[in-house]
Amino acid sequence: MFLWNWLDKMEQENIIQVQNLTKKFGSFTAVNSISFNVKKGEIFGFLGANGAGKTTAIKMLIGILAPTEGDAIVANFNVCREAEEVKKHIGYMSQKFALYDDLTVQENITFFGGIYGLTRKQIHSKSQQLVKELSLQEVSNSLVGSLPLGWKQKLAFSVAMLHSPEIVFLDEPTGGVDPITRRQFWEMLYKAAHEGTTIFVTTHYMDEAEYCDRVSIMVDGKIEALDTPNELKKQFVVESMNEVFLKLARG
């Protein structure tokens, strides 16, 4: 009985469970039989060079791309059979800017709040809170397209969190932004994780691995390493995650 209780607890702690997940496009294998778990409230880094298969993997996990083989459970729903349920319980910020440039800040918040099924009262409350937290009071009626990239990215993350999802998936969220904005963005991620949201973030910036609870490193569609940053540095006898990645890339 104790063993079964322990196994049940382990299952509950894992909010993402991936087993032999594979995606092929014709003869090309973009994601090659990857397996891993992500715990509730964890900041999980999904690292790798451009073209390593990170974006393809994340698209399968959020239910917009069907796996060729394997399976995954996300927020207690099967990505193959219950993709629409998966989408209701997650937030997603794509590699390309996800908001509408020709709508104002306020209009974007209202639009996406409606998509996420929030009531008018909830949208109004969340909108006021979001604008205040991001210090966007002076530009709330400005077109999003007029904002600096860093502000856009922070706004896009906040909008992805409007419906209080259990997990938020972020695909290269800090690409192209300056170092100060990157640090501010990661402070937002820490705050969300501290409040119980699981953060699944893909990046090719190896220094960002240091901010994660655990990281996996993909090379040519496969996960070649997975552990805490400190344990990976010990394992590869190096001082930085960039050196870990270089060793893996060189084979």
Automatic annotation (TrEMBL):
GO cellular component, one term: membrane
One family name in Pfam for this protein: ABC_tran
Domain of life: Bacteria
Membrane topology: Multi-pass membrane protein
One of the record's GO molecular function terms: ATP hydrolysis activity
Residue stretches making up the ABC transporter domain: 16-245
Keyword annotations from UniProtKB, A to Z: ATP-binding, Membrane, Nucleotide-binding, Transmembrane, Transmembrane helix, Transport
Chief subcellular location: membrane
Subcellular location: Membrane
Keyword Coiled coil on entry: no
Protein name (Swiss-Prot/TrEMBL): ABC transporter ATPase
